[in-house]
């Protein structure tokens, strides 16, 4: 099937054609003669395991990385000079929207829309704000939407943020031209704004502009895209496979090159013999109020809700990263006042937090994978003679790399050189290696591929089985269903009574909305 390109929405010249593009970093060949063909007016998925080369391809196409000699890229039939010049790519309508939508929160909507495009007056070099506002308004009008131009982006709701990001990417393309690449941009969108996002994409592709969507959410690929290209170890093993009629199992098989074992589909059951539970009582923060949750050793408890319901505040309040306004926690026979506890005190008490957004929090990107894994491990800093200690450390790092399938499996590589999903695995390894009493996870599998998700689920379950209490805050019902013994639903800051016992993903969505699960595209 490789290379055969069944074209879907529009015929004629592909909007974007990639031929034999390769990229090598040192001894690592991240892309190997990749082929890709995006036709006018389609949403085209690009999927692959962590480290398979998706972001590298997006970065080559927008000029961040120069490719190896030999490849070719065409936009609307005409060749694009390689290495790509970013301004030239933009002028040809090829733009990228990065993870987390790439917005600057403390800038206004008009500044975000026009950043990098401001036209200064010839003599005074001052920005002509009226023209900039007109251009920004026109960009939003193309989507048929109105967002206040002078408001700071950080103050917008998620739907408006998504609108601004798409309008910004769209403004350089004439109607019916151009390709917008979304590099895991839907990762941090909530369930509600995801629906809005896909409606906007439908209106974008209806004009003939095309979309290349990079994502790990396979259900999203099957729901929202017309065709999909699959990268495996830098090779495009499927090019433009129609998604209609494709099952998730087929897609997983193509992506991994093997069947996925059913391990993660089995329910986790907390061991019957447990010690004292971790009890959290009267926890309040900015949104969360008067929350009581208890997690027994060996148990995995999830917290979830719609955006703004307070569940995503819980990990940071119980780990001392944000100060609670009230609340107490009983852990390992000790009582802790959560309004006084800081992060160092939480770590000393046996709490480990794996936050979301690994680039910002938790990983030292310039340090090696091994150094990161060992950074928080209290046992490694003590005792033994240097050579013995070094051997023990090497063995420990090797075990974690193997257990979580970190790729490439090289402890001496700077963490910043790993792909996004592999960084997530290193961050998890770093905290699992501390053998915490309470492991707190926020969106633990957000950036990881389907195979790595299973490795992470298995590692978290193993920690629970060894007696750790696990608290997971997540907006992903599939993840919660795979992991959790119980799930607590949050509404308006309050934890609802009667947690769901071993719920399915649909049970969770239903409990959150008291309604059915909706498809992303009609
Ligand atoms: N700047 C860099 N220097 C060295 N190696 C790199 C660099 N960027 C990426 N790589 C390597 O290139 C390969 C592809 O990485 P890339 O980030 O493109 O993967 P990805 O498919 O986007 O993964 P993920 O889904 O985890 O984001 C990986 O082996 C990665 O370690």
UniProtKB/TrEMBL annotation:
<dbReference type="GO" id="GO:0005524">
    <property type="term" value="F:ATP binding"/>
</dbReference>
<dbReference type="InterPro" id="IPR050107">
    <property type="entry name" value="ABC_carbohydrate_import_ATPase"/>
</dbReference>
<dbReference type="Pfam" id="PF00005">
    <property type="entry name" value="ABC_tran"/>
</dbReference>
<dbReference type="InterPro" id="IPR003593">
    <property type="entry name" value="AAA+_ATPase"/>
</dbReference>
<keyword id="KW-0547">Nucleotide-binding</keyword>
<feature type="domain" description="ABC transporter">
    <location>
        <begin position="272"/>
        <end position="517"/>
    </location>
</feature>
<keyword id="KW-0677">Repeat</keyword>
<dbReference type="GO" id="GO:0016887">
    <property type="term" value="F:ATP hydrolysis activity"/>
</dbReference>
<keyword id="KW-0813">Transport</keyword>
<keyword id="KW-0067">ATP-binding</keyword>
<protein>
    <submittedName>
        <fullName>Sugar ABC transporter ATP-binding protein</fullName>
    </submittedName>
</protein>
<feature type="domain" description="ABC transporter">
    <location>
        <begin position="16"/>
        <end position="258"/>
    </location>
</feature>
<dbReference type="InterPro" id="IPR003439">
    <property type="entry name" value="ABC_transporter-like_ATP-bd"/>
</dbReference>
<dbReference type="InterPro" id="IPR027417">
    <property type="entry name" value="P-loop_NTPase"/>
</dbReference>
<dbReference type="InterPro" id="IPR017871">
    <property type="entry name" value="ABC_transporter-like_CS"/>
</dbReference>
């Amino acid at each position: 099937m490789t290379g055969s390109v069944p074209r879907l929405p529009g015929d004629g010249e592909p909007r974007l054609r990639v031929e034999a593009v390769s990229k090598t970093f040192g001894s690592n060949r991240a892309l190997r003669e990749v082929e890709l063909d995006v036709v006018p007016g389609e949403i085209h998925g690009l999927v692959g395991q962590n480290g398979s080369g998706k972001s590298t391809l997006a970065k080559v196409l927008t000029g961040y990385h120069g490719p190896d000699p030999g490849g070719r890229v065409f936009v609307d039939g005409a060749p694009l000079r390689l290495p790509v010049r970013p301004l030239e790519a933009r002028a040809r309508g090829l733009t990228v929207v990065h993870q987390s939508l790439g917005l600057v929160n403390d800038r206004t909507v008009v500044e975000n829309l026009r950043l990098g495009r401001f036209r200064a007056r010839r003599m005074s070099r001052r920005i002509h704000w009226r023209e900039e506002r007109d251009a920004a308004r026109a960009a939003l009008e193309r989507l048929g939407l109105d967002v206040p131009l002078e408001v700071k982006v950080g103050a917008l709701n998620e739907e408006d943020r998504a609108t601004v990001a798409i309008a910004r990417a769209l403004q350089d393309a004439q109607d019916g031209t151009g390709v917008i690449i979304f590099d895991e941009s839907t990762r941090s969108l909530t369930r509600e704004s995801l629906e809005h996002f896909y409606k906007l994409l439908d209106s974008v592709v209806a004009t003939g502009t095309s979309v290349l969507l990079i994502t790990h959410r396979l259900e999203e690929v099957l729901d929202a895209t017309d065709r999909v290209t699959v990268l495996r170890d830098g090779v495009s093993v499927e090019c433009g496979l129609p998604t209609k009629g494709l099952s998730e199992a087929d897609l997983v098989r193509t992506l991994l090159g093997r069947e996925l074992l059913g391990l993660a589909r089995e329910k986790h059951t907390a061991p019957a013999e447990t010690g004292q539970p971790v009890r959290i009582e009267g926890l309040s923060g900015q949104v969360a109020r008067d929350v009581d949750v208890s997690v027994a050793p060996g148990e995995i408890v999830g917290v979830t809700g719609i955006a703004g319901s307070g569940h995503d505040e819980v990990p940071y309040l119980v780990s001392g990263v944000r100060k609670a306004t009230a609340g107490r926690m009983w852990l390992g026979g000790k009582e802790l006042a959560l309004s006084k506890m800081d992060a160092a005190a939480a770590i000393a008490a046996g709490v480990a937090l794996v936050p979301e957004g690994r680039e910002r929090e938790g990983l030292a990107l310039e340090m090696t994978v091994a150094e990161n894994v060992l950074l928080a491990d209290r046992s490694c800093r003590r005792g033994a003679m240097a050579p013995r200690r070094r051997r023990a450390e090497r063995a420990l790092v090797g075990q974690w790399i193997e257990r979580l399938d970190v790729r490439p499996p090289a402890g001496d590589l700077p963490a910043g050189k790993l792909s996004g999903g592999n960084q997530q695995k290193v961050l998890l390894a770093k905290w699992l290696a501390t053998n915490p009493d309470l492991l707190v996870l926020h969106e633990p599998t957000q950036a990881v591929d389907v195979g790595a998700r299973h490795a992470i689920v298995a590692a978290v379950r193993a920690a629970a089985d060894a007696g750790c209490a696990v608290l997971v805050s997540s907006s992903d019902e599939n993840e919660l269903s795979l992991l959790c013994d119980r799930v607590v639903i949050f509404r308006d800051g309050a934890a609802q009574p009667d947690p769901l016992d071993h719920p399915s993903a649909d049970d969770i969505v239903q409990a959150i909305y008291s309604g059915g699960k909706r498809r992303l595209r009609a």
